[in-house]
Amino acid sequence: MNTENVSNAKTQKLTSHKNGDGIVGIKSAKWLSLPYAVWMIGFIIIPLIVIVYYGLTTVDNRFTLDNISAISSPINLKALLMALEQSLISTIICLLLAYPLAMILSKSRMRSSSFIVMIIILPMWMNFLLRTIAWQNLLERSGIINTVLKFFGLPPMNIINTPKAIILGMVYNFLPFMVLPIYNVLIKIDKDIIDAARDLGANSVQTFLKIILPLSLPGVISGITMVFVPALTTFVISNILGGSKIVLIGNVIEQQFRMGNWHVGSGLSLVLMIFILISMAILSKYDKEGEGSGLW
What we know:
Strand content: under 5%
Structural class: mainly alpha
CATH architecture: Orthogonal Bundle
CATH superfamily: MetI-like
Radius of gyration: 26 Å
Number of strands: 0
CATH topology: MetI-like fold
Distance between the termini: 55 Å
Helix content: over 70%
CATH class: Mainly Alpha
Number of helices: 13
Order of helices and strands: HHHHHHHHHHHHH
Number of domains: 1
Largest sheet: none
């Protein structure tokens, strides 16, 4: 009888804990999310509303679509196509470099992999602008690379102020954003699944194509998104490494805002936002479980 009383007391205590403390925990969790909600409203939603307003109005506050249709001009359209081309090439190169590296890291020992991951993340601690300027000093005609080539009697490398220099800058700056999501997914793959596939007669290629690649697809999609979006919207890299010879859509938008033409700049930003949303919608079809979004 005493045992039953003790059991009932424990059950009541557990129930009160779930019903009472659980509700308190949920309420406190909501309060903890309040700073992020304020941040999101102040720095995401309100600026987005301002951009939409300016992009769809004229100087005298009349509704218009001329700001959006400004993308059809030859200069703006060329800048948009160039930005799409550069960002797509940079994303593909980052994927080809990041996936093998992530696989090597996932198979290495814990200490060595952690050290290499730290090395990958270490450049991100430096200011983005300083990293890009460093590459300018390396690639310019009288820079470090050409000085070394000249010392060994090799021809100079004229890559600065070309699309190749912009792609190199994008790959260098955005490669960690491709490596880390893929690595994060690969280390979570159950080794027993891979061993079971090999026990059933699958070779290394079949195991990769049938097991590893499908399971790592959410990380790949997340990495592609995290590289493609900033590469498409960048203007700093093209300004520094491309000079005034190569103009991307990000440079056009920056010039419009710098000249005080907020309406055309906002309209072009809305067009760029549409392309970003389309690319993310296409990628989300291959991330059916939505696991890639959890890596943000």
